[in-house]
Each structure stands twice: as C-alpha cells, then as structure tokens.
Amino acid sequence: MSLSTERVTPRPVRLDMADVSLSGDLSLPADARGLVVFAHGSGSSRHSPRNRAVAEALQHGRLGTLLLDLLTEREERTDAVTAEFRFDIPLLANRVVAAVDWAKAHPQTASLPIGAFGASTGAAAALIAAAQRPTIVRAVVSRGGRPDLAGDALEAVVAPTLLIVGGRDEVVLALNRLALGRLKGPKKLDIVQGATHLFEEPGALDEVSRLAREWFVQPLGG
What we know:
Order of helices and strands: EEEHEHHEHEEHEH
Radius of gyration: 16 Å
CATH topology: Rossmann fold
Helix content: 25-40%
Number of helices: 6
CATH superfamily: Alpha/Beta hydrolase fold, catalytic domain
Strand order of the largest sheet: 1-2-4-3-5-6-7-8
Shape: globular
CATH class: Alpha Beta
Number of domains: 1
C-alpha cells in the first residue's frame, strides 16, 4: 500500500448532540476514502499523544480522523477527582454513537465509510457503537482496550474487529482473549510483543499504527 506524505491540519469542530456539545478535531486528507472516529480511554482526551500518533498514521493511509472529547470540560474536571465518568460505558457509548451520526450528517464526511478506534474504556464504547450502527461502522480497532466492558453488545458486532494488546499487559490481554471469544463477526487479536499497556516501548506505537492502518484500509474503501 502506497502511503501519502501529505501533512493534514486538524480543524476544530463542535458536535452538538441532544443534551451536550463536545469538542473535536477533524482531519481530512484531500483524497480521504474513509473516516475513523476515535474514542479515547480512561482519563484521556482528544489531545492524547498516542491517539494522535495513530491518527497521523491513518491519515498517511488516506483516512480521515475525528478525535473528540467524550466528556465536557466540566465532566472532565469532575472525573479528574472522582473518576466517575471514565467507566460510565453507556454514557461514552451514546456519545460515540452520536459522533458517528454526526459524521454521516456532516457535509464533508457524509459520503465516507466509517470506522471506530477505541483505547482503554473507549474500546468498549466503540464496540457498542458498532453494534448499534451495524450498517454504518465498517471496522473497529481496539488499542490496549477493555472490550469486555461492552458486555452483551460484543455478540451483536458484525464489523471486522481487531484487538491490539501489549504482550506484557497480562491482565488486559486475558480480558481481550475472553472478549474475542464472544465476538461473532470477523475478528483478530494482535499481540505487540514486549509492549506494556501504553505501548511506550521503542517501536511499539509504530506497530500499533501499522496494524490499525492495515485493518481499516480495506473495509473503508482501500
């Protein structure tokens, strides 16, 4: 697969939903052939350097990206103290679903096939969104995620799903193996050997980016 060297400038967007307005960064290569909606993990935001690194790799694969804050500024301040929102999977999932709906209605992205990328608890939200929007979400990737928190929604996911876990992230790896067994659609578990939960080891995040890009490109119009 040939990769683009174009540098894409993110554009701030506001996603107005039924009960809340969320901030996002939309990045669209000139020849974008798909869009990946990012769902961040526990205590993170659209500014996560790891998610941004993956997003840049996807953009080089001619995929647009939408990184968004799943919590409002007020909710983030509360969560920083109480951690009450980061594991509120129904809340996070509803907002990922709303982001997918926003993308299908937004003039610049309406025609693009959509995938979902989730990290940590965001992986569960992404999978629930895929279950609730089976004809729209065409592929899912989880990075160091908690897909087990998607519960019974796992069995309703039809989109091809890739679970990426660090080889040294033993507890999360065990949970991903259990979740993999519950997924009924096309699925794969990739283990990045020597990597811990945050993929901070040299080359680990590059491997995550490569795996994610290769997984998304075909179902999103490659």
